[in-house]
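Obj.: predict assembly geometry.
Materials: sequence records (below).
Method: joint structure prediction, all chains together.
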Amino acid sequence: QVQLVESGGGVVQPGRSLRLSCAASGFTFSSYGMHWVRQAPGKGLEWVAVLSYDGSNEYYADSVKGRFTISRDNSKNTLYLQMDSLRVEDTAVYYCAKAVEVTTRRWFDPWGQGTLVTVSS
Amino acid sequence: DIVMTQTPLSSPVTLGQPASISCRSSQSLVHSDGNTYLSWLQQRPGQPPRLLIYKISNRFSGVPDRFSGSGAGTDFTLKISRVEAEDVGVYYCMQATHFPLTFGGGTRVEIK
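Observations (raw structure tokens):
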């Protein structure tokens, strides 16, 4: 079955960097677009970024544009989120999610269990 | 960015009774390809979100038929025909017509 496992979260000081990983299994990873979505503690969902199946197209939320970079290694079935210049407001659980269909990234499921990033001095 | 506004914030429902959640977008969600990319997601307590409905009214695989979606343009509705205990959680609408994708603020469904 499809499985997504995020890792790399932790506590980091403002201004520092962190790289999240999302290990995928149970499907042909190289055929599907992938998303990152975050959820601040006790808050709602905020979309972060999406990457096409081959890594050629990417989009970002305005709040992370220029600071975060989404990438993938299809040989390792892994999605990444490089987070630079972290801010306190980036504190959240970060989820990766798989596009449902090969032909579109506009709806996605399943989601991983998430990894918590805490930005604090 | 498209703003998604959900009402109500909270919906206390008696088991077996219906529930309805509204979602309004600040702009039309009709894409130039003719599709409307409005989805509904459910987040049970302590769980990641899961997809319920996509393109307004298409139930995702494994979603019970008591869940239905409707609407057009800027106004959308999720209905649960008979609420069960397992439906407790927060429901989000999400638009994917325009980038960046945006979510509604969420509606909490709880049992009275």
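Conclusions so far: The mean pLDDT of chain B is 97.
To do: check interface contacts against the pulldown list.
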